[in-house]
């Protein structure tokens, strides 16, 4: 029988399923590395879709340069990774200030001078970032999403 | 330098006018917090500047302690011998309006200054200190004033000396006298430990206590790895399932950490103001930069001063070349379960194994 109560509970279930679905497939930001015009500089950019903001834990990301080893540079000729020469920091628990707000519909970028952290010989390299950790809500940090940015192959002078 | 100062003073004098009094209108007074200090105590002095003239005076902030000490403001001597200033000197552009503070007639302003991070106080001695600032730029520019100051031969502000006794760190542990400070904040202890970046007495004392704890921890970790059985709970909690090659790697890491702490010339720097515990450059042994969270950490136990020194020492490529893969105890425990080969490369995993808090067998 199709009672009003049953109709209500069915539609609530349907609404719930839609909302769960949208959480799981919430449009993620897009991140990538770009070779800058000059020298050994890369630009990191993260772009956030409209309608939804995110938080990024800035540790171990390009926004933390150079206090953690967040970037691997591999020489494509020798297949050796370059030694990281920047700093490594011991920290406590992250505070709210360590999470960077990524506003809906906006892009944030930061420029990385590779020469500050690597002794670079001219050649072709693959640049790979550690996966980013994204949060929708700082009051619910148990819910987080890992985001892998595509690697970049680049000629460095 | 003074020529340059005069030139820039003239440049400003021609564009700015102010109602300022003469230099002799400002009195400086020093007050020590104590008469004598032990080697682990900070040496606090209160500097009071009073405008005794009947008109307002503007002083250049750089030569007060308004934003911390940014120039050599004091003359310090130990048993009659002048001690060098170890702090920063700044190259600056010509001062602007916002670089001056104004004292009304009769007004006083006081600053607390910690001296052991700024001057070489490694020697046990009777110290004498006076505020001693001479600069043509000290007072707000005013053409009439500059001429009058020059005519009167007034160059700055000088206080009466204050004196105190200080038990220096270099005589601790007998007659193996340490080298004098090599500049930049603190000198070298008898054990070859150096301090740079303005480490105060209490900071040096905190670091040495942390280092002693770190040595105890590394010796205990070595002992455990040499004698415990392969089902050690302490090992598996932080480094995961047993394998002989991983166990050997960890043993090797700790024997190198222990050797570095006991035998290598360690340098500790106190200039970092970030909210980290500490950081290092893995390619630059054996210098450790201590940051804000270090000073409030306990000496031993979880995330302690001793453990932080273990953590940082493990990062050096010539020691264990560890990385920061995960942070915190819960992260390190999860990593041990999910990926033991990563755990043995993680600095916090080494730290927690060494701290062994809570105690595991």
Automatic annotation (TrEMBL), chain B:
Key words, A-Z: Hydrolase, Metal-binding, Metalloprotease, Protease, Signal, Zinc
Any one Gene Ontology molecular-function term assigned to this protein's record: metal ion binding
CC cofactor: Zn(2+)
Domain Lysine-specific metallo-endopeptidase: residue ranges: 223-355
Signal peptide, first to last residue: 1-23
Pfam families per record: Aspzincin_M35 (PF14521)
Single GO biological process annotation from the record: proteolysis
InterPro entries to which the protein is assigned, alphabetical: Fungal_M35_metalloproteases (IPR050414), Lys_MEP (IPR029463), M35_peptidyl-Lys (IPR034115), MetalloPept_cat_dom_sf (IPR024079)
Domain of life where this protein originates: Bacteria
Protein family: Belongs to the peptidase M35 family.
Name this polypeptide is given: Peptidase M35
Species, as recorded: Shewanella insulae
């Amino acid at each position: 029988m199709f009672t009003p109560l049953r109709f209500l509970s069915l539609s609530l279930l349907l609404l719930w399923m839609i909302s769960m679905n949208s959480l799981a497939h919430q449009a993620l930001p897009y991140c990538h590395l770009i070779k800058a015009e000059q020298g050994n500089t890369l630009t990191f950019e993260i772009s956030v879709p409209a309608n939804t903001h995110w938080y990024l834990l800035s540790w171990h990301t390009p926004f933390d340069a150079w206090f953690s080893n967040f970037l691997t540079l591999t020489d494509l000729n020798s297949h050796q990774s370059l030694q990281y020469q920047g700093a490594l920091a011991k920290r406590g628990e992250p505070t709210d200030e360590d999470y960077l707000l990524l506003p809906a519909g906006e892009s944030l970028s930061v420029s990385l001078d590779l020469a500050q952290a690597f002794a670079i010989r001219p050649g072709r390299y693959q640049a790979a970032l550690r996966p980013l950790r994204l949060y929708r809500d700082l009051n619910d940090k148990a819910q987080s999403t890992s985001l892998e940015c595509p690697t970049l192959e680049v000629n460095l002078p | 330098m003074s020529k340059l100062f005069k030139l820039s003073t003239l440049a400003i004098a021609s564009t700015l006018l102010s109602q300022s009094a003469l230099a002799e209108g400002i009195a400086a007074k020093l007050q020590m917090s104590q008469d004598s200090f032990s080697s682990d105590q900070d040496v606090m002095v209160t500097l009071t500047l009073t405008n005794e003239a009947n008109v307002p005076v503007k002083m250049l902030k750089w030569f007060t302690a308004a934003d911390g000490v940014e120039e050599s403001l004091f003359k310090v001597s130990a048993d009659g011998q002048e001690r060098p200033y170890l702090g920063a000197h700044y190259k600056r552009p010509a001062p602007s309006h916002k670089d001056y503070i104004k004292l009304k007639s009769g007004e006083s302003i006081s600053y607390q200054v910690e001296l052991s991070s700024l001057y070489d106080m490694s020697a046990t001695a009777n110290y004498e200190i006076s505020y001693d600032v001479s600069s043509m730029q000290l007072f707000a520019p005013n053409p009439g004033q500059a001429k009058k100051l020059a005519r009167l031969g007034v160059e700055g502000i000088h206080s009466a000396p204050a004196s105190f006794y200080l038990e220096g760190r270099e005589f601790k542990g007998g007659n193996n006298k340490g080298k004098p400070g090599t500049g930049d904040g603190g000198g070298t202890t008898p054990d070859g430990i150096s301090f740079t970046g303005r480490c105060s007495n209490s900071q040096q004392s905190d670091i040495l206590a942390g280092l002693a704890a770190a040595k105890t921890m590394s010796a205990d970790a070595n002992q455990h790895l040499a004698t415990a059985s392969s089902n050690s709970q302490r090992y598996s909690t932080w480094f995961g399932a047993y394998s002989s090659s991983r166990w050997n790697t960890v043993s090797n890491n700790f024997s190198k950490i222990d050797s570095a702490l006991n035998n290598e010339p360690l340098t500790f720097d106190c200039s970092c103001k970030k909210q980290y515990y500490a950081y290092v450059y893995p390619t630059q042994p054996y210098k450790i930069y201590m940051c804000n969270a270090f000073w409030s950490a306990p000496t031993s136990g979880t995330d302690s001063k001793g453990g932080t020194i273990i953590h940082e020492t493990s990062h050096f490529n010539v020691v264990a070349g560890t990385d920061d893969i995960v942070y915190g105890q819960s992260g390190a425990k999860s990593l041990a379960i999910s990926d033991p080969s990563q755990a043995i490369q993680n600095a916090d995993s080494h730290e927690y194994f060494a701290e062994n808090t809570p105690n595991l067998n």
